[in-house]
Design goal:
Keywords: Oxidoreductase. The protein has 338 residues and is an alpha/beta fold. The chain has a single domain, classed as NADP-dependent oxidoreductase domain (TIM Barrel), CATH 3.20.20.100. The strands form three sheets. Strands 3-4-5-8-9-10-11 form a seven-stranded parallel sheet. Helix 5 runs parallel beside helix 6. The protein binds NADP nicotinamide-adenine-dinucleotide phosphate. The site of NADP nicotinamide-adenine-dinucleotide phosphate has 30 residues, from helix 11.
Length: 338
């Protein structure tokens, strides 16, 4: 078993050591339609056996249901896993489609207590601000988060979808272990400002949706027709209609590289993200999401694939040609605010 375990990386500042690939747990109970609970639990255990230690959830994933679902797994392996959860996004009681974003101190304090309770643990290892509430100065928000560290409720701090300026202001208040933002062959906005700032400040990058929410694996070609009604990807501009038809054609170079290595498209997509560690000179720990054991094995195996310079060059033009935004509302993303 020792041989098959993945390499390790340190998150930023005094952040924890983690397996070089984490596991995104959102889809196990939320966002991408129904999933098999038993298989998701088996996927968690398999990931753990293979050396995955960073597990990603959020209070927003199903209104806390995802944290509750993960709690038994976390408790069974408490000292060996790094629990990452987030605050800031909730839905309106009157309209479940309406997102409410809050970063004020009373809200953060109520969120951390609720997450600790649902997870049934004494401390959260990595606590992220999920989205920026521009009504609250970032210094104030991170100041509140730093109080949680001093009080022993949280060990390390992270920020999701922040701009480079917000990251710099936050780091001046308290060390930030990781920025979690979308980063993949399809989504490279953060390379302009956020990645250089993170490198300069010694902050790690935790790329979310490194498989382009599954699109880069070739497993669906139009969310509007291929995915269920409950699947959030049906609302994402790049995965439906003419955009999806154009974007599917962009997978050809990924397929070429996959064939050369005798691996899957998913593995090429993950190897590319992992290799950004060397390209940009900072720790990069992607958190691919899956609900299946076999895909955990496949994804973890991608940490051992090294792409050549020629292959990186072949993949380089893809992102600039992607049609459609990452979100229906781009103010929800850092690149909408840089
Ligand atoms: N901070 C944020 O705002 C934010 C936003 C989105 C996500 N996240 C976090 O990032 C994690 C990962 O992102 P994501 O789940 O959106 O997208 P992703 O990791 O890019 O893709 C997940 C999708 O790919 C499929 N998949 C996984 N491995 C595969 C493989 N080897 N072959 C074929 N299909 C494969 C999964 O389906 P199966 O389950 O069927 O394998 C799932 O539909 C989430 O779980 C969440 O924790 C954070």
């Amino acid at each position: 078993m020792t041989d098959s375990r993945i390499a390790k990386a340190h998150l930023g500042g005094d952040g924890p050591e983690v397996g070089v690939q984490g596991l995104g747990c959102m889809g196990m109970t939320w966002a991408y339609g129904p999933s098999d609970t038993g298989e998701s639990r088996a996927a968690l255990e398999r990931a753990f056996e293979l050396g995955v230690t960073l597990y990603d959830t959020a209070d927003a994933y199903g209104g806390g249901e995802n944290e509750k679902f993960l709690s038994p797994f976390f408790k069974a392996h408490r000292d060996e896993v790094v629990i990452a959860t987030k605050f800031a996004i909730s839905t309106s009681p009157d309209d479940p489609m309406k997102r409410i974003i809050r970063n004020d101190a009373p809200y953060i304090r109520s969120c951390v207590e609720a997450s600790l309770k649902r997870l049934d643990v004494d401390v959260i290892d990595l606590y992220y601000m999920h989205r920026r509430d521009v009504r609250v100065p970032i210094e104030e928000t991170v100041g509140t988060m730093a109080e949680l560290v001093r009080e022993g409720k949280v060990k390390h701090l992270g920020l999701s979808e922040v701009t480079a300026g917000e990251l710099r202001a936050a780091q001046a208040v308290h060390p930030i272990a990781a920025v979690q933002s979308e980063w993949s062959l399809f989504s490279r906005d953060i390379e302009a400002n956020v990645v250089p700032a993170a490198r300069e400040l010694g902050v790690a990058l935790v790329p979310y949706s490194p498989l382009g929410r599954g699109f880069l694996t070739g497993s669906f070609s139009d969310a509007g027709t291929d995915l269920t009604d409950q699947d959030f990807r049906r609302t994402m501009p790049r995965f439906t209609g003419e955009n999806a038809a154009a974007n599917v054609r962009l997978l050809e170079p990924v397929r070429t590289v996959a064939e050369a290595h005798g691996v899957s498209l998913a593995q090429v997509a993950l190897a590319w993200v992992q290799q950004q560690t060397a390209v940009h000179g900072l720790p990069v720990v992607p958190i691919p999401g899956t609900t299946r054991r076999s895909r955990v094995e496949e994804n973890v195996a991608a940490t051992r694939i090294v792409l050549t310079d020629e292959e990186l060059a072949l993949l380089e033009p893809i992102a600039a040609k992607v049609e459609g935004d990452r979100y229906p509302d781009m103010t929800f993303a850092s690149a909408g605010r840089e």
